[in-house]
Amino acid sequence: MARKIVKSRYYGDEGLIETMAEVPVDKLKAWGPDAELKVVGKPVSRLDGYEKVTGKAAFTFDVSLPRMTYAKILRSMVPHAKIRSIDTSEAEDLPGVLKILTHKNCPVIPWHWGTTVLFDTEVRYQGDEVACVVAESMQIAEDALSLIKVDYEILPFVSDPSEAMKAEAPKVHAWGNIIDGKPSLYSRGDVEKGFQDSDVIFEDTYSTQVVVHNPTEAHCSVVSWDGDKLTVWDSTQALFGVRDAIAKSLSMPASKVRVIKKFMGGGFGGKLEAGKYSVIAALISKEIGRPVRIALDRKEMNLSVGNRPDSVQKLKAGAKKDGTLLALSHYSFGNVGAYPNDADCSWPLRTLYKCPNVRTEEYSVLTNLGRARAYRAPGHVQGTFAFESMMDDLAEKLGLDPLELRRKNYTEIDPVSNRPYTSKLILDAYQKGSEAIGWKEKRKPAGSEKGRFRRGIGMASQIWWGGGGPPAYATIKLNEDASLHVMAGTQDLGTGTYTFLAQIASEVLELPIEKIQVTIGDTETCPYCSLSGGSMTAPSVSPAVRDASEQMKRKLISAAGAILETSESNVKYSAGKMSRLDDPAKIISISEVIEKLDEKMIVTTGAREANPEGYEINTFGAQFAEVEVDTDTGKVRVIKVVAAHDIGRVLNQKTLFNQLHGGIIQGIGYALMEERVVDTYTGKVLTTNIHDYKIPTIMETPQIEVIIVSSGDLLISNTGVKGVGEPAIIPTAAAIANAVYNATGVRIKSLPITADKVLMALSEKN
Amino acid sequence: MYNPVIFICNGKEIRTSASPTLTLLDFIRRELFLTGTKEGCREGDCGACTVLIGAGSDDGSVSYSAVNSCLIPLGTLHGKHLLTIEGLPKDALSPFQQALIKEGGIQCGFCTPGLIMSVTGFLLSEKDLSIEHAIEAIAGNICRCTGYKSIKRALESFLCDSGINPEAGEKRMESLIENGFIPPYFRNIPELLRSIPPFAEDPEDTKLKPYFAGGTDIMVQKQGEATDINFHFLKWSEERVRVEDGFIVLDAALKVSSIMDSAVLKTCLPQLESCLGLFGSRQIRNQATLGGNLANASPIADLANIFLALDGRLTLQNGDQVREVPLRDFFLGYKRLSKTESERIVKLKLPVPESGFFFNFEKVSRRKHLDVASVNSSVYMKAIDGRVKFIHIAAGGVAPYPLYLKETSSFLEGKSLTSGIILEAALIAQSECSPISDIRGSEEYKRLLLRQLIFAHFMKFNPELIYSPEILFQAQAPSKIF
Ligand SMILES: Cc1cc2nc3c(=O)[nH]c(=O)nc-3n(C[C@H](O)[C@H](O)[C@H](O)COP(=O)(O)OP(=O)(O)OC[C@H]3O[C@@H](n4cnc5c(N)ncnc54)[C@H](O)[C@@H]3O)c2cc1C
Ligand code: FES
Ligand code: FES
């Protein structure tokens, strides 16, 4: 099928992606809202279920190769120091130790955009890489670590971003503690005038904590060389990113690096980049000529592989008496840790509502702590908590129903780009969500509840990108026995990619799903797809699979026409059989066609089409929370969450529910308990295990009602899918905070909303 | 070389001369290559490593409990049956496995094997097969992906029509085999276990090694250490709860779960079971012992707190020497005990509660389950016509050791309870404690929380005493208290 190269522009997990992409010239017609689909959208059970419930699913963590060796990294125990010297002699003498890598014997490989190298002589946070031991066993590697002597010249450190922003603060890097040396700015209209024209001004400061991804499977790689070819099993969300980073680091052709990832125990954004650990393992493996396994432990997971940056957000809103927003301003800073990243979080404020005058000023601040990374809807989660808390405060001040205030400022045009949205069903989400939670009947004025246990209801809106875009490709191979192989260089984080790709092929070709094998997670055998983040996997890859499947169908029809001696338009395709319309008795099966073609299989490759020009693609939604606050102890319990979202077409109801429920529970963790705690006197992290870093258990699970208000976005792609992974978590914390306010009349402006904050705030109020 | 440890893994006998202190999880994954058992934290906090351990008893039956294999040394497995995910029926998926797939109770699948083992343990050992108990049985299995709703649905869908015989014991086991939850080889396990000779004890002097009871503290503390340390695996003659001479006697070896199940305690102190439901997770409760909790002397230890209020007395033993210490005098300072290193705790005695007594336990932690307290507190009292006959209050997390609130308790003794008296008592309690700021809360907060927990006790005792906390808040703003 004809292809062309176009400019592709869409938003990923960390903002705008602009790239050239090969796309089909002719777009397939999207499945309409009333398309009668038999497999897509149905609650199909996941195809990898059997492997997962039997313990047979092999995760990277489980990969074991003959003659495999074990690597363990020595990490800095201090937040900031220069390494005067390292003595590895005693460790090297330990029987079973095969190789120790330090800055002394490791090639200089730039990392984090050249701000550091694989093993730096200056360590900038507790957890920075100092050395790596490879040994015959884990135990020996661990023993050897304790025998390495490092002489540190301790340097002053800074762990609080507000301190780090000061001129006299210790410098994390010689070039300063603020990324780019300046804030990132955005403005539209005239904010000062907007405030002047406002009847009501509201201003406050909100803050959020650092949270850590903590997927259940640790970051890990197993690497193995075969001559000059390197195979890397990695627990990653970005196959090709890992491949290219390793190839570049080791100065080898990308074609010689194969990255494989079959199953992974979650990522949530923390596994979107290549890790130093993979490169270190590859270097050592090459030298010792044996496979190396490297797996981080839970402490390393909590120190060194990323987190959601914190934020301090000073917000100001100006509105007319009737609630019309006239001006919004946002000033914030956030802690990105020791190496560059960004902590920006103003997108919700810029885009959720119509407001002519907006100004934002955001600082991403370096400190001597573990580096921030993309974490499920980066920026939007922090930003939505603050902004939607403020909208609730503003509504209270205006004497308006919070939902009314939001409806009042609804926009169909993206306020930043002035482009229309391909679809926006947030008003439906407000309507259906508020009905489900009982907004009208159950919600009382804030703080009017009496007694020890007080209930309240709150809500928050959600906006995110999640439209995906090209390039993304899929190859399908149809065998003579009418079994099918779908291949795409994407990855399944547990999100159900294997299953929904099979569903699409099954839908188009009307073949049973049991006959479809999906291969993803392999850079060598699969065509390119982008990383799995930004809720892009389904919207980017599903249309490519449909494209490939439709091409396959056309090929079969064409072949059948030739064999049945008629025109293609006289051939009807049905469930793997082609028949003449004018003579239905003349019928031929896939097997017969392929046999006649004298090929063992037919192959097609499909591509994701271009996004429509002149539009913005966003997901929308609203969540409503009901909470109960124990005013004696300050404990907050979430009773119910209603999640109403516009996410385009649903591909699979079961995996959709998983995504939403999981996002909401992570949102509850973020709202109520998860927090990386740092001792600012020593610069050390106090929560380095999941005993101290609290993740919700099944006992924290409230009632959850999911409402999908969309049925497929006809403009974006042939499947009409938008992503859901990130929308799920975005509004949860704000909805809970607003519900706590509604229950108690006390506003908790900093996350997490722990019992101590509530109790102290309650006792201050009285 | 170590003396061989022999046990049954799934259906097969395993004989190994690996170190008895090797962590079971590592043995399973690295030596047996059974990688269905996952590793998520190595500290008992995630449940990914959950396996079942079956121990034979004299009557020939085998009782199973779900435990975290990351907290178990290989040596304690001798003579036992280890069940991993690979040991479940092979021909067909169990009804729970099927339900998980059908209801979508899986995402990445990393937590799934541990979850299935917890549920299998629940089916084998739980008396009450209700959905509430099933949920509670998996509170120690962290899932970062699914949000648990679909797991809950999977539990509901198979439990409503599982064909399992609710009667515990042999009949239950048979029905589990017949319904495909466990494989038929379970029938041979008692026989196989009986054929294993007792562990050949190393004659080496064990005096200087730390005692090993359940390991839930000691194995976590060991994690940081690079080399294996040796344990003295405690051998117990008995593990039960009984009434002797007006005292309830608890052996130190009792697991938290056995304390919860004890018929004696259910009668004498029915409140205890639900209080202990807040202790760790099912896996932890199946391992953690009474003696370990008291000897570890963590300031927030729940059992220490509860038994301080219940006026417990300890029996300590060193060889032939036996002595008794009131629990109140046992804790001297941070991890300092009125006990020599070679003395071990053998028993705890509690006076049998008088009729009409009141007991309450409060625990506030960041997460309701699978968490240790910011502050915990227990009260044990009896009041006649509103006048206190006796009262004992304990508080944890507000001092370097589990604290008996001596002055508060003696202040209240003999008093007629009014809001004012309770407020005064709370003030005394606050002056009696010395909390420090840490990740479980600031000093100020813990002090405030202690007062609130004292209110909570009396709210439960008689809601009318403290019908509205505002009254008390207004009576004295916290700034004036501190
Ligand atoms: C995930 C997790 C959750 C937890 N949650 C809670 C909780 O909610 N509440 C709570 O109170 N605790 C909790 N704990 C702590 C721990 O489970 C308890 O303290 C437990 O009771 C310790 O008992 P053990 O048998 O496991 O002790 P072990 O680890 O075997 O021993 C602890 C210490 O006591 C010594 N010791 C053991 N038995 C004796 C004896 N008979 N005589 C003398 N010394 C002895 C040992 O030498 C060791 O120093 C938790 C732990 C974990 C890992
Ligand atoms: S590995 Fe987490 S509980 Fe054992
Ligand atoms: S499914 Fe991923 S941790 Fe449970």
Question: How does this model look, in words?
Answer:
- The complex is a heterodimer of chains A (766) and B (482).
- Chain A is α+β, with helices and mostly antiparallel strands and 766 residues long.
- Chain A folds into four domains: 3-59 and 468-607, 2-Layer Sandwich (Aldehyde Oxidoreductase, domain 4); 63-155 and 216-266 and 271-304, Aldehyde Oxidoreductase, domain 3; 163-213 and 311-407, Aldehyde oxidase/xanthine dehydrogenase, molybdopterin binding domain (Aldehyde Oxidoreductase, domain 4); 419-466 and 613-766, Aldehyde oxidase/xanthine dehydrogenase, molybdopterin binding domain (Aldehyde Oxidoreductase, domain 4), CATH 3.30.365.
- Helices cover 26% and strands 27% of the residues of chain A.
- In chain A, a hairpin with a 2-residue loop joins strand 24 and strand 25.
- Chain A is globular.
- The relative contact order of chain A is 0.14.
- Chain B starts with a strand and ends with a helix.
- Chain B has 482 residues and is α+β, with helices and mostly antiparallel strands.
- Chain B folds into four domains: 1-37 and 51-85 and 190-234, Roll (Ubiquitin-like (UB roll)); 89-182, DNA polymerase, domain 1 (Orthogonal Bundle), CATH 1.10.150; 235-351, Uridine Diphospho-n-acetylenolpyruvylglucosamine Reductase, domain 3, CATH 3.30.465; 362-481, Enolase-like, domain 1 (2-Layer Sandwich), CATH 3.30.390.
- The longest helix of chain B is centred in the C-terminal third of the chain and has 19 residues, at 443-461.
- In chain B, the strands form five sheets. In chain B, strands 2-1-5-3-4 form a five-stranded mixed sheet. Chain B has a five-stranded antiparallel sheet with strand order 8-9-14-10-11.
- Chain B has helices at 24-31, 95-103, 112-125, 131-137, 149-159, 170-178, 189-194, 218-222, 256-261, 263-268, 272-276, 282-285, 290-296, 302-309, 406-412, 419-432, 443-461, 469-475, 478-481, and strands spanning 5-9, 12-16, 50-56, 62-68, 81-83, 211-212, 232-233, 241-244, 247-251, 313-318, 321-326, 331-333, 336-337, 344-351, 358-364, 375-384, 387-396, 403-404.
- In chain B, helix 2 crosses helix 5 (149-159) and helix 15 packs antiparallel against helix 16 (419-432).
- The interface between A and B is large, with 87 and 90 residues.
- Flavin-adenine dinucleotide binds next to strand 6, helix 8, helix 13, helix 14 and strand 14 of chain B.
